[in-house]
Design a protein that fits this description.
alpha+beta, three-stranded antiparallel beta sheet, two-stranded antiparallel sheet, 4 helices, 5 strands, 44% helix, flat
């Protein structure tokens, strides 16, 4: 049996997420660069949200129930902030283009792929052997 070396792997702060055709699930030419859990902007957003919830809890003794529309808007801004760029799309990347595309109710499938990609921790790993 081989001894496992956890030092042989390390987190990265970004990853390329290959977008799949929403019907066939075949990879497309589009690749979205997404911020990993250790990316400074993503951590800042997470900490801001946690601070806001903790402040509300400290003030009232319970977490605010929130509004679903606000939750959806917050998720959209989170996805936009965690998208660093993209390539292979007919639309060039910009923050405004990203927000329009993710906000389009006809492109919810794309939004879901990016949201799911942000949770796939293996995308943000690399071998550190020989690095």
């Amino acid at each position: 049996m081989h001894i496992f070396d956890p030092n042989a792997f390390e987190d990265t702060d970004r990853a390329d997420l290959v977008i799949k055709n929403p019907i066939t699930l075949v990879p497309t030419s589009m690749s979205v660069v997404i911020a990993g859990p250790e990316h400074a902007d993503r951590k800042r957003l997470r900490f801001e949200r946690q601070r806001k919830l903790r402040a509300a809890l400290a003030e009232t003794g319970c977490l605010p129930p929130g509004d679903p529309a606000d939750d959806e808007a917050e998720e959209l801004e989170h996805l936009v902030a965690c998208t660093i760029g993209w390539s292979g799309s007919v639309d060039p990347y910009s923050v405004d283009a990203c927000r329009r595309l993710y906000a389009d109710p006809k492109r919810r499938w794309l939004r879901k792929q990016v949201r799911d990609g942000l949770e796939r921790l293996e995308l943000f790993m690399r071998s550190s052997v020989g690095a």
